[in-house]
Structures are given as C-alpha cells and as structure tokens.
What does this fold into?
Amino acid sequence: MRDFAGTPGTLTGLALRLSQCVFAAGSITAMTTTTSFFDFTAFCYLIASMGLQVIWSFGLALLDAYALVKKKALHNTVMLSLFVVGDWVTAILSLAAASASAGVTVLYFHDLGNCDFVGECQKYQMLEC
It folds into this structure.
C-alpha cells in the first residue's frame, strides 16, 4: 500500500490528528466559558460530541506516535477499516451536533423575536444536562 499524506503512521497523519484534538478542545473551551450554554440540550450534545472527538483524535495520535517510534506501518486492512468507521462516526456526530446548535440559535435569535409567547416557548426547550 502506498503512503499518502495523512495516512496512519506518518508524520503528517500525526500532525493532522493532533490538530483535530487541539481544535476540538478549543471549541469545548470556547463553549464552556459562556454562562447560559448548558441551558440547552443541543449545546450540551455539541460539547459531548466534541469531547468524543478529542478522545478519538488523541487516541489515534498516540497510535500514530507509537507507529513512528517503532517504525511500523499501520496499513493493516482491519486497522484502516476501524479508522474509517471511527472517523465517519465522529464526523456524523459532530455534524449533527453543530446543525442542532445552529438550529437552536436561529430559532431563538430570529424566529422567536416576533413570538408573544417567548417565555412559554423557552421553558419547554430548556433542559438540564
């Protein structure tokens, strides 16, 4: 199997995994520093999905670092299938969480601006995480 940029067990793969981990941790930090972020379920789901992204990316970064130190190729079919499925799952969860958060943001800032029952509408949307 040929080495492409970003494949598991290469230096660029390690750099990409570390940057995924850093950006996911940065987004969690930015979200948790707000005061009312935890009042909405969609935003809690976004934090949970980014937490899963941090764990997944950090685990694969450690695996890439191990492969670089031991000079082993991670081109096993089973390992690559695991990477693809894991990346696919975390990508779908992140997309769903970001879409839900964007939908809630649009609902509160644009759609409920003309609603006379804003307090009534919001009490059914708020949940404790």
Summary: The chain has a mean pLDDT of 81.
